[in-house]
Amino acid sequence: CEFDFGRIFLPHLLPASDGDTKTMTFLQEVVDILLAYIVESFDRETKVIDFHYPNQLLQMNNWELQDEPATLDDILISCRATLKYAIKTAHPRYFNQLSTGLDMVGLAADWLTSTANTNMFTYEVAPVFVLLEYVTLKKMRDIIGWQDGRGDGIFSPGGAISNMYAMLLARFKMFPEVKEKGMSSVPRLAAFTSEHVICLTHFFHFSIKKGAAALGIGTESVICIKADESGKLIPADLERRILEAKQKGFVPFFVSATAGTTVYGAFDPLIAISDICRKYGVWMHVDGAWGGSLLMSRKHRWKLDGVERANSVTWNPHKMMSVPLQCSALLVREEGLMQNCNQMHACYLFQQDKHYDLSYDTGDKALQCGRHVDIFKLWLMWRAKGTIGFEAQIDKCLELSEYLYNKIKDREGYEMVFNGKPQHTNVCFWYLPPGIRYMEDTEERKKRLHKVAPVIKARMMEYGTTMVSYQPQGDKVNFFRMVISNPAATFEDIDFLIEEIERLGQDL
Amino acid sequence: CEFDFGRIFLPHLLPASDGDTKTMTFLQEVVDILLAYIVESFDRETKVIDFHYPNQLLQMNNWELQDEPATLDDILISCRATLKYAIKTAHPRYFNQLSTGLDMVGLAADWLTSTANTNMFTYEVAPVFVLLEYVTLKKMRDIIGWQDGRGDGIFSPGGAISNMYAMLLARFKMFPEVKEKGMSSVPRLAAFTSEHVICLTHFFHFSIKKGAAALGIGTESVICIKADESGKLIPADLERRILEAKQKGFVPFFVSATAGTTVYGAFDPLIAISDICRKYGVWMHVDGAWGGSLLMSRKHRWKLDGVERANSVTWNPHKMMSVPLQCSALLVREEGLMQNCNQMHACYLFQQDKHYDLSYDTGDKALQCGRHVDIFKLWLMWRAKGTIGFEAQIDKCLELSEYLYNKIKDREGYEMVFNGKPQHTNVCFWYLPPGIRYMEDTEERKKRLHKVAPVIKARMMEYGTTMVSYQPQGDKVNFFRMVISNPAATFEDIDFLIEEIERLGQDL
C-alpha cells in the first residue's frame, strides 16, 4: 500500500484539496476487505458465525467511543473486526431468518445508493430514485392484478410499518374525521387477523397488534380468528367474529389476511375472505411481507388468488426475493387516499411555484418526511434478473423446501408440526433424539422435547456450521422452523442441515 | 477488462461455483464508477445536478422493468445513468437540505453495512451492530447529560418516526391502559409545540401533527404555541395554552420543544419549558433532529441547556453530523418504558431457553420488528473523528453561516427574515433584484418578491451550479433558507452562492 494509514486521518481524505488519491486508496482498501468477506461468505468451509456472548464480544475489541480521532489504520482494523464477528447472512447454510442471502447486483446497487446519499423526499433531491419507485410500484401493482397497474404505494422501513400504514388508511377511509379529531370521534373499532399472526406465534411477529396499540385502537380490538391445522384462517370463523363484534358495538374496519405466515408459511384463503370483507364493508389488507413474492411465480401464485381484491398489500422484496435489507412495499388500490390521509396542509398552495410536476413528490404520502432510498437495489436486481429470473429463484427455494419435507416426513426421529406439503418454504418439525423417540406421549416427554431445539441451536452457533430458528407455538413445544430464501442453498445444504441436527442432537 | 460483461449475466456471479473472479471483477467495475463519481462530486467545476423534468428523464434511459434479464454490461450502464442524473449531495455547493455532504468513513461503513446485510432484530443476527448501538446510545445519553449515560433509546428510520415513538411513550406513561384499550379508555389529550413547527412552516415538516393523526389523538389536539420573532417558543404562551386546554377538559400529555427548527434554526428555551412541564406533569420531548448535534460542541451546546431535563430527545446524526442517510436516534430517559410500551407478549416465557443475555434483543422496543442497521456508519465516523472531530466540523459550519450572515445583513439588495445572529446554520433572507429593491412596501411588491426565489432556484437547477431551498412562512413571502451541514463547504462557496443569486436574479 502506497500510504501509511497509521499516519493518515479522516481529514486527510476528500473533501481535503489533495485528498483524491488517499481517498481512492482508502476506499479501495475497504472494498478489498469487503470482497474477501463476500467470497468467504459463500464458502461452505467457513463458519456461518464466530459466536461470542455479549460480555465476551465487548472485550474482544475496543468498541468504546473516544474523544480523540483514530487513524485510518484503526478504522480498517475496526472494519475487519466487525466482519469477523458478524453473521454471514449470505452463507448457503444460514437459514435463520426470512431474509437471507446476498445478491451481487443488489449489493452493488446498495453501494451506489449509499454513495448517492439522498432521500426520497421529493423529485428535486432524488429524481432518478423517485422515478424508479414510480415505475416499480406500478409493475408490482400490475402483478397483483390491479388494472393497468393503477393505484398507489410506497416503500417503507419494513413490514411492521407497511402494515401500520395500511391500518391507518383503512381507518381514515371509513372515518376521515379521525385525522383531525382523533379516536374520540370514532366508535370502537375492531380489526381481525389469524391466530397464527397474533395469538399463537413467536413474540416478535406482532405487527398488527403493535399497529393497533400505536394507532390508539388498542390491542383488545384486534380479534383472533381461528386457523385450521395447516395455519390458514377459517373464513367462517372470521364472519362469526365480525358479527359478534358488531353485536358488541364495535365497528369492524380492518381484516389483515396473511399470505405466508411467519412460522407455518400458510396462505389464508383470500377469495373467501374478500367476499366477507365486501359483505361487511371492511378494508381488506393482505400481509404478504413473506409470501407476496410468490406472485412472481407462475407455478405458485395461485396461493394468492384473490389478492387483486385487496385494498392494500404488504410485500417485502427483502425477504423471499433476497433484496438487501431493507425493502418493503405497501401497495394501495385507491389512488389519492395516501395523500389525503397523511398530508397536513393545503401544500399545493405553497408549492405551485415549483417548476416541475409535483405528483412525483412523495413526502406527503406517509408519516415519514424523508425516506431512505430502498428502491434502487430492487430495481437493479429486477433489471438483472428479469421477472423470469426472480421466478426461477423463488421456484428453486420452494423446490428445496419440498425436498426437505419429503426427506424428513417419514424419516425416523422426525415429526412434522403439521401435515401436508409446505405452501411456502417453511418446514416445521421436531427432531426427536433417540432418548426421547420411544417415550410415551407424556408431559415428561414434552418437557424434554421442548429443550431439544434450543440446545441443538446453541451448539450450531458454537460450532458455527449452520443456523435455523426454532420456537414454540400455542401448546406445541419448541420446534424447528426451517425457511429457505437464500438462492445460494442447494440440495446438499439441506442434507447437511439434517446431518448436523442429528450429529448435534443425538445425545439429548 | 478481462470479461465481456455484454455476455455475462447475474447467475454467472456468486454463488455460482466458478463465480469468484467474475464477481470480484464486476463489483470492482461498480466501485470504479462510484469512485469516479465521488471525486467528481467534490469538484466545484462539476454541476450539482444535471436537471431534467420528470417526463424528459423518463425518456433518457430505458427505466422500465422487463421479463427478460439484462447483461451485466447493461447493469453497469444503468449505474452510470443513475448517477449521471442524480443530485451530487456531496458537492460543496449543495445546500438544499439539512442533510448534505458525504463522509468517506461514513460511506465505507455504509458499504460494509450493505455487505453484512442483516438487521437489528436480535443479538443473534447482528451481534456486533447491536453492541455498537448499545455503546453509542449510551454515549449520546451521556452527552445529553443523563447520569452515567443511563436510559434507553433506539435508532429509527428518521425524525418523524422518532418523534412518533416519543409521543407513543408519553401517552403510554400517563395511560398504560391505552395499549390494550385504545383511546376510548383515555380522556382527550393535548400536545403542544411551537407554531414554527406546525402552523407556519413548510409543508413537509409536520411530524408532530402527523404523529398525532396516526396515534388517534387527532391534529386538533396539537396546540400551536406562539414563538418570538426569532422563532423561539414563548414559555408564557405554553403555560397559558396548557391551562386553557385543561379548562376545556383536555389532558396535556406531551410538549415537543424544538432544538433547531427547520426553517429558522431556532432553539426553544428548554429550561423554562421543562419547568412548565414539571409543574403540570407533562412529558417533555426535545425534537433535536436538526439541532441535537450542537451538543457535541462546547461552544454551542449552551443553546440546548435544559435538554437533560427532557423525558425524550430526537437527535438525527444524518443531519448536522453528516452521517450518511438514514441515522436518527430517539433517546429516552426512563429505562424499561420502551419495552413495556411496545412488547406484545410475556415474551421471556418463551425465550428463557435462549443461550445469551436477552437484554440485547431490541425487537420489542419499538413498533418495528426488524430494523435497518443505521448504527455502524455513525460509530465508525465517531471513531475516525473522535468527539473533537465532530465538534470541529459542527463549529466550522456555524462559522460559515455567521460569515454569510455578516456578509449579507447590510448588503444592498438583501433583507433578513429575522434579525440577529443565526443560532444554528440557518440563514433566512430575501434577495431583492434591482427592479423590486426601490419599490414601496405594497402588496404588489410582495407579490413580485414572492416569485423571485422560485425563479432563481429554477435557474440554479438548470445551470446546475448550486442549490438552496426557499419557502414562505406565515405571512412572509418566499425567502431563501440557507443551511450549511456540508463539511466540504468553504468561505469561497458562500461567496459563490451570493454571486450566483445576484447573477441569476438581477433581471427579475
Automatic annotation (TrEMBL), chains A, B:
The gene is gad2. InterPro entries: PyrdxlP-dep_de-COase, PyrdxlP-dep_Trfase, PyrdxlP-dep_Trfase_major, Pyridoxal-P_BS. GO terms for molecular function: glutamate decarboxylase activity; pyridoxal phosphate binding. The modification N6-(pyridoxal phosphate)lysine is found at residue 319. Pfam families: Pyridoxal_deC (PF00282). Homodimer. It is found in: Cytoplasm, Cytosol; Cytoplasmic vesicle; Golgi apparatus membrane; Presynaptic cell membrane. It comes from the Eukaryota. This is Glutamate decarboxylase 2. Belongs to the group II decarboxylase family. GO terms for cellular component: cytoplasmic vesicle; cytosol; Golgi membrane; presynaptic membrane.
